[in-house]
Amino acid sequence: MAPFSSPILLGGPKRLAEIFALRTLAWERSPGRQQINSSKYPNGYSDCLDANSLHFVSTDWNGNIIAAARLSVCNSYADLPYPEMFAQLLHLLPQQRPFAFYSRLVIHPDYRKRGIAQAMDTMRMEKQQELQLPFGLVTVNAKRCLKIQPYGFVRLGYTPKPEGDAPFEPLALMRLNLEEIRLPQQLLLDAVV
Q1: Among 26, 48, 115, 193, which lies 20 to 30 A Cα-Cα from 109?
Q2: CATH fold of the domain at 8-192
Q3: How many C-beta atoms surround the C-beta of residue 180 within 10 A?
Q4: Cis omega (within 30 of 0) on the bond before 98?
Q5: Residue 105: is it exposed, middle or buried by C-beta count within 10 angstroms (0-12/13-18/19+)?
C-alpha cells in the first residue's frame, strides 16, 4: 500500500486543475462513468462553486493529489450547482445564512477504503464548526448516506436527478446542524464510555 498524507486545506487555486482531473478519473472508475469521464471532460470536471470554495486534499509521498473534497460557504440555494434539484425540498431547508455545502469528495481508485473519506469528512465538519455555519447540506448516494449519518447528518429526502452531469442517482439530500456535529473521534469516545 502506497502511503499518503493527512488531508490539508489547499491554499489558493493553484492546484485546482489537478483536482478537476482527479474528479474525472475517480468518477470514470465508478458508477458515474457514463456522466463523468475523460471523453466528456478532457480537462477535468468543475462547476460554479470551485473558484470560491475551500478545497481539502490528500497527497501521495510524491505530492500528487490522491483525494479531494470541497466545502462551500453559500448565501442562497440558488448558488448551488443544479439548483433545480432542491426545488421540491426547499420547504424542508433552514432559512439561516450563510450555510455550508459539502461536495465533490473524490478518492483515487488506488487509495480507496483506507479511511481517507472519513478524514476528509472530519476536516470539513471541523471547518463548519470553526466558521460557525449553522447548518450544512450534502447530496449523496445511498451508500454514502449510511456512512455519514453517524456524524449527525439527517436525510431530508431524495432529489430528482438533475439534467446534466450528476454522477449518481438518486441522491439523498442531508442536513448537518452545527450543534449536532459528531466527529469520528467523539463517536469512538462515546462507544468506550
Answers
A1: 48
A2: Aminopeptidase (3.40.630)
A3: 12
A4: yes
A5: buried
- Return the domain boundaries, the chain: 8-192
| Neighbouring C-beta atoms of residue 36, cutoff 10 Å | 22
End-to-end, the C-alpha distance of the chain in Å comes to 33
Q: At residue 183, does pLDDT exceed 90?
A: yes
> What is the structure's pLDDT at 187?
67
Q: 41-76 pLDDT, tens per residue?
A: 999 999 999 999 999 999 999 999 999 999 999 999
Strand order in the sheet with 65-74: 8-9, 54-59, 65-74, 99-107, 135-140, 171-177, 154-159
Residue tagged 430528482 (cell numbers): 160
Q: Which of 92 and 54 is assigned the larger pLDDT?
A: 54
